[in-house]
Amino acid sequence: MELSHRATILAMSNVIAQPINLYDLSRPRLGQLLAAWGHSDYHAGLVWSGLYRDLAVDPESIASLRPDLQGRLATSTLITNLAMRSVIDSADGHTRKFLLELADGQAIETVLMYFRGRATACISTQVGCAMGCIFCATGQMGFRRHLTAGEIVAQVVHVARELRRSGQSLRNIVLMGMGEPLHNYEATMAALETVMDQRGLAIAPRFITLSTVGVVPGIRRLTQERRPMRLAVSLHGATNEERSRLVPPASRWPLEQLIAACRDYTETLGRRIFFEWALIDGSNDGPEQAHALGRLLHGLDAHVNLIPLNPTTGFDGRPAEPPAAKAFQAILAGYGLPSTVRQRRGIDVAAGCGQLATLQP
Ligand code: SAH
Ligand code: SF4
């Protein structure tokens, strides 16, 4: 056994230490922990399937384990318990928003959406966000902290439990909740590996979309590591000047660098990228911006998602009018760029894109 590996297991199995959060562990790490306690990988498999197939509410309630293992789990482990502070349904019945409390009293929002009859979970990766996009409620609240892998996994389990109560299952995940997933790279990837694991939640990578504001080193790393999920990049402006007015990180990672990283991603992985564009009336919804976007993405395997701006308290822009959105799409089509105007969902309960925020506890 490697030294660092052995040190990790010793740390993991130290009974005086804090209880181990099982949601933080990958399947191989869980196997190592149980091996250190003298149990075979078969037992690790039982625990894993208890956590992610049966959606056990605590480690000791996992069925059919040996009593000594059950006892050890009870004394040395826990799973993230996200207390539900509130739940609110949109009037159209398509969106349900959960306000979930973390162990330190901070809170996050997680959204369950039904789209063409399929359940999608919109998951948060941070409490607040450091990127400061001016039209986004999460950006307006500032950065509080990163979520741990376990806290990201716990949101997915929460939604899966909720669906199971009505005999449904979770198929899609979008990392479009609070925060910038590529600013919290390690925890986000660890969580995604857990939710994709075939022996557990088994969410297929093609049904997972990670949305980023355009953190170039993160996109390069996704490419290098050949991460299998889908990628969405939030643009909102097709020139550096326009874009940095709305999205402050645009000055750190200018469009030349961002589009080069995107080109590399599509070519290396043979995968399309989705570009998101919040359409703001009189700001970035005109023909000039549409042409600039068409030129910028020319030749790239891309699809553009246009999102009429959702209201937030800190920004007084208005959504583009439907004819402007149509005209914008027609110009993009002239450059061979497919696009969709995203249906507005959950606006009445502030669960739409960019509307998630939590008050200071
Ligand atoms: N931080 C990531 C993911 C979370 S935001 C990102 O920025 O991509 C999810 C999506 O909502 C992004 O495309 C974001 O630009 C968009 N968005 C933010 N505020 C919005 C608003 N007020 N109206 C419409 N879309 C918004
Ligand atoms: Fe952060 Fe995304 Fe909101 Fe920008 S749009 S502030 S990156 S959550």
Entry summary:
With 361 residues, the chain is α/β, with parallel strands linked by helices.
Beta strand count: 14
Can you give the helix content as a percent range?
A: 25-40%
Write down the overall geometry. Answer: globular
Instruction: Report the structural category.
Output: alpha/beta
Following the backbone from N to C, one meets helices and strands in this order, namely HEHHHEEEEEEHEHEHEHEHHEHEHE
Ligands in the model, by name, code or SMILES, are: S-adenosyl-L-homocysteine, iron/sulfur cluster
Task: Give the radius of gyration.
Answer: 22 Å
Number of helical segments?
Answer: 12
Largest sheet, order of strands side by side? 3-4-5-6-9-10-11-12-13-14
Give the strand content: 15-25%
Measured between the Cα atoms of the first and last residue, the distance is: 45 Å
Point out poorly predicted stretches: none
Mean pLDDT: 93
The major β-sheet equals: 10 strands, mixed
Plain-language structure description:
It is a single chain. The chain is built from twelve helices and 14 strands. The strands form three sheets. The chain has a ten-stranded mixed β-sheet. Strands 1-2 form a two-stranded parallel ribbon. Strands 7-8 form a two-stranded antiparallel sheet. The chain has 361 residues and is an alpha/beta fold. A hairpin with a 2-residue loop joins strand 5 and strand 6. Residues 133, 135-136, 176, 180, 211-213, 234, 276, 278, 307, 309-310, 312, 353-354 line the site of S-adenosyl-L-homocysteine (SAH). S-adenosyl-L-homocysteine is lined by residues 133, 135-136, 176, 180, 211-213, 234, 276, 278, 307, 309-310, 312, 353-354.
